[in-house]
UniProtKB/TrEMBL annotation:
Location in the cell: Cytoplasm
Protein name: Acetate kinase
EC number: 2.7.2.1
Residue numbers marked as site, Transition state stabilizer: H161, R222
Amino acid sequence: MLVLVVNCGSSSLKYQVREVAAGTDGGTVLTSGLVENIGGPQVRDHTEALELLARRLDEELGGRTVDAAGHRVVHGGERFSAPVLVTHEIVREIERLAPLAPLHNPAAVLGLRAVLRTWPHLPQVAVFDTAFHRSMPEHVWRYAVPEEFYERWGIRRYGFHGTSHDWVTGRAAQFLGVPREDFHAVVAHLGNGASVTAVRGGRSYDTSMGYTPLAGLVMGTRTGDLDPSVVTSVLRRDPSMTPEALDGLLNTASGLRAIAGHHDMRTVQEAADRGDERAELALEMAAHRLAKYVGGYHVAVGGARALVFTAGIGENAAAFRARVCGRLGALGVVLDDDANAARSRGTRRISAPGSGLEVLVVPTDEEQAIAAATAELVAGTAAG
Ligand SMILES: Nc1ncnc2c1ncn2[C@@H]1O[C@H](COP(=O)(O)OP(=O)(O)O)[C@@H](O)[C@H]1O
Ligand SMILES: CC(=O)OP(=O)(O)O
Ligand SMILES: [Mg+2]
């Protein structure tokens, strides 16, 4: 089966076409690509990115057509705890959840609708970032707020990047030769959006994002954790400020961008290397926040075997990994500086022998995980 995987991130659209047999783990890649810097001068929005993608596929597949499409959908709310076949009703439901993931669900909806328009009979599957975190216990997913917040509005912690955290957990356990159900770890997915997950017995026990992907770590353009009084205080002080405008500021004008003036880790690191004090401050803030989470989650899982870095920053930004690990001396973490700096790809260990936690880099592959889930659901539906 040929599966087109569409991953609409906040600033990028990754796609792959994979040849997958049902029951296998995602098959092999026939073609893949990336549309970067969406929102920039070249590609204005996700609709334009998808038009570009359709043209590329015509050329790259040489006349072959895809059998199914699998989409990354960030917020599945309380309703979706596993992949689903997409209908117009499902798209509307994902759209209804858009306020909870304003950078993501609207992009996914554009992707789903564009595919429905281009290939109306193609089975489509939505795979949710929130699904992996459904294993969090209630004392972890609850907020200590009046009960009606949850009962009326579904306000609780959901967690995101689940497809990636799940995939990376499996790979890391395999790499270390630990049965997944015995594997305790802290997994840091550091991309434009970033989150860290406490993995206990191979499952998500806690994670840094919450009701929306705004919580937790200092990200490219998002605040991460914030005293909620900041929000009420700004709304009170500035009568022209609307909830929507403030939401926009916290999601797109904060994080590294607010402190360093740039949201992209490469640019921020280069500026810090040139002695830019704001860039240095931004990196210190991001590293401090992450190190605090690692310490907390090490305790939460009853002692982690490994700290795992993944996604754009986690896989590539050696200097940032070193900055974080340098703060973990209390956990006995010791990096192997050469292994950390090596420009290798693939799953690798970057801690020194005897380090308190083994530190790994595991490339994420959300596309492969989505392709596997899509093929399984579509084949199962055809058979049943
Ligand atoms: N070689 C590199 N060194 C440092 N940071 C990098 C490198 N390559 C990519 N990144 C960073 O990874 C981030 C994007 O990660 P990615 O996982 O692709 O994000 P998303 O999927 O959220 O769009 C950016 O901050 C980018 O600067
Ligand atoms: C949930 C989330 O933050 O996703 P991304 O990293 O793609 O922005
Ligand atoms: Mg991503």
